[in-house]
Specification:
about 30% helix, 5 helices, single chain, Dihydrofolate Reductase, subunit A, four-stranded mixed sheet, about 180 residues, alpha/beta, four-stranded parallel sheet
Length: about 180
């Protein structure tokens, strides 16, 4: 998840024009997606992703990242946290709502690998409140927003984390990988 130095994941109206990204960072994210069996999204992020990624690899001027991520997006199971969306014609997509903590706990008990959450701060807040986040990959951008959507809010109890990896990227972004202790 991209985060500003002062802890915001988006501006007050969801703006993300402050995020710095380059091919080096796309490569790092490609390593994360390669290990993931499922992608978890909130409704808003899912709608944004689903408007672009299903056909991104098919465009004549598609970048390497667009091809790789588009292919991954089309094959990976998508789990969408939403109380308003219940059904879709998209393959490999399921919707969960209501008691998302119980539903995610059930999904985590099933065979398979990593569930990767991309963006989706509102869905993240629900999962964090249920202590369901096992690892954090944060891309700290060199910007202070001052206001917006906070990454960490309404944390109910202390969560101990262990720093597993750091990486500095050329646009001044620092990648931090934390695991729960």
């Amino acid at each position: 998840m991209h985060v500003s130095l002062d802890g915001f994941v988006a501006g007050p109206n969801g703006e993300m024009d402050w995020i710095r990204i380059n091919d080096e960072m796309f490569e790092a994210v490609g390593g994360l997606t390669a290990d993931a069996d499922a992608a978890l999204y909130g409704r808003v992020t899912y709608q944004m992703m689903d408007a672009y990624w299903p056909t991104a690899a098919d465009k004549p001027n598609a970048s390497k990242h667009d091809i790789e991520h588009g292919q991954w997006y089309n094959k990976v199971e998508k789990i969408v946290v939403s109380n308003s969306m219940k059904d879709t014609s998209r393959a490999n997509t399921r919707f969960i709502g209501g008691d998302i903590v119980a539903e995610i706990e059930e999904i985590k008990q099933q065979p398979g690998g990593t569930i990767l959450m991309i963006g989706s701060p509102s869905a993240y807040h629900g999962l964090a409140a249920g202590n369901l986040v096992d690892e954090y990959w944060l891309f700290v951008n060199p910007v202070l927003l001052g206001t917006g959507i906070l990454l960490f809010k309404n944390i109910q109890s202390k969560v101990g984390l262990k720093l597993s990896e750091t990486k500095a990227f050329s646009p001044g972004v620092i990648g931090l990988h934390y695991e729960k202790e």
